[in-house]
Write a structure and sequence with these properties.
Blueprint lengths: L2 H8 L1 E11 L4 E14 L4 H9 L9 E11 L6 E12 L2 E9 L9 E7 L5 E6 L3 E11 L2 E10 L2 E14 L5 H14 L1
Antiparallel strand pairs: 1-2, 1-10, 2-3, 3-4, 4-5, 5-6, 6-7, 7-8, 8-9, 9-10
Helix pairs in contact: 1-3
């Protein structure tokens, strides 16, 4: 599976259930979200705008996505909602690797660029360094309609949070046959 197929297979509406382990407090917290992922062509105006913001030539981008979420976390009454644009910029020398430009980060609410890598197992690993922390997230498809995520967040010299998320497709724009075949091939070799 390549990054474009991963994004295409991710398109749609998802129900997300996350359990976060706050290591310093030795406590876990549940969260639930509705997530909508829309793929964006490499020449989409939002993709071009984000590339320009990072001083990356828009022709270097391979694909993009708009991610919108609305959810709740167990420990607070605040609604967690927002939207961000993601753009992939492949490394010309290393197929399956590159930069991931984000309009807004996951751990800090500011624009941030990280790296991505698609493994031979079809899993996507994202590594992002923020000003005060570092995160690593791994996403993979257990089936075309079930996506899994694990992440760790490190700050102040140690790990501060680990989380596991399962995402169930609730509706979608149909993935291409190629993306679905890539997900099924990965699942067959893993089983």
């Amino acid at each position: 599976m390549n990054i474009e197929e991963f994004f295409e297979l991710s398109a749609g509406k998802w129900f997300s259930h996350r359990t976060s382990h706050h290591l310093a407090f030795k406590q876990a917290e549940d969260g639930k979200s509705d997530i909508v992922i829309e793929t964006l062509a490499a020449d989409h105006p939002e993709v071009v705008k984000l590339c320009e913001q990072y001083e990356v030539h828009p022709s270097a981008a391979s694909c993009g996505a708009r991610v919108t979420w609305k959810g709740t976390m167990e420990w607070d009454e605040e609604k967690h909602e927002g939207s961000t644009v993601l753009v992939t910029v492949p490394d010309a020398d290393k197929p399956g690797e590159g930069k991931l430009l984000r309009e807004m980060g996951y751990a800090e609410k500011a624009p941030v660029a990280g790296t991505y890598k698609i493994g031979e197992d079809g899993a996507l690993t994202l590594i992002t360094e923020y000003e005060t922390m570092w995160s690593e997230e791994r996403l993979w498809f257990a089936s075309p309609n079930l996506r899994m995520r694990v992440s760790v967040l490190k700050r102040f010299g140690g790990f501060s949070m680990a989380s596991f998320t399962s995402e169930i497709r609730m509706g979608s724009t149909p993935a291409s046959t190629k993306a679905t075949e890539a997900a099924n091939a990965v699942q067959a070799t893993a089983g």
